[in-house]
Amino acid sequence: MGLLDGKVALITGAGGGLGEAYAKLFAREGAAVVVNDLGGPRAVANGADISTMAGGQSVFDDAIKHFGRADILVNNAGILLDQTFAKATEAAWDKVLKVHLKGTFCCTQPVFRWMRENGGGVIVNTSSTSGLIGNFGQTNYGAAKGGIWGLSNVLAIEGRKYNIRIWTLAPGALTRMTADLPRYIENPNLALGPDGIAPAVLYMVSDLSGDQTGKVLGVSGPRGVREMRMMEKPGWTPPHEGWKAQDVLEHAKEIFFSEEEIKMGARRF
Fold it and tell me: Does the annotation mark 141 as catalytic?
């Protein structure tokens, strides 16, 4: 018995890299897989542009046409067009936001609607530490990935009563998209390949993860597999009126994380 016997999974950006690794692992675990990729190196079942509503609908329609279900969606497709903010172009900004953030919306909406009417399912949206924490030279990518995290948070709330579970994945992997990044060129031994990320995604979409939803899982070579979340201090409650900006300074220990707290695990992102 496979972990995904009888399930139908839709995976975008699955012509190579991470998406291909997910597709192969899901298939070995018993799932029927609809593979989408625009320009990947291997044969694909769906070549639609998922950054359009018609393209996202096409991926869903293929799943229903061939298998009659849509139990799992992994939004994985993406591109990199790195630029520092001072040198950023509108064209690169629009393209990266369209593929990552709009593409996630376009593919998710028809699947989410189907899951809402058919007992639920699991959706994995791919974010990045570039969006959750930040990374030099990736303003467009970071903005898109941060937006995906925000989208996931809302989907988890809206989908809970319909048994739709939402995960956010922040992978750090050496793939065709990241191969020329300095951190992987300088430290190739620190990077996980796609097969090193895929088991975590299988955990998310299978019954192994129970009823968990609305969580972020980071998976990368240097830091391993770990939950990531925004941390919040207890804070200081000012009076309704009459408080001053200087009061923030006076109550700084209650408001801001100390370096020691951050080192002990209260890392903000």
Answer: yes
